[in-house]
Amino acid sequence: MASYTTNINVGGSILRGLAAPFVAIGNFLVAISEGNSRLAEVKQLNALSDVQLAQRGLKREDIVRHVFRDAHYI
Q1: Whole domain around residue 39: which residue ranges?
Q2: Closest by CA position to 70, among listed 45, 47, 49, 41
Q3: Count of domains forming the chain
């Protein structure tokens, strides 16, 4: 999972308004990168047999819920 910290000291509301699109683009790119890693994990778990999933304590229908358990309440 990717994380980042941005500290932008913007003096006025005009500068804050100018910085907002760049902050939004940065947040969007982070969301995409996190989504790709989760998708890769779903694909990797789907490639396992039912026996291997059972050894991990998972059922096939619970894979997505397991991968996104910390990001969404499903």
Answers
A1: 13-67
A2: 41
A3: 1
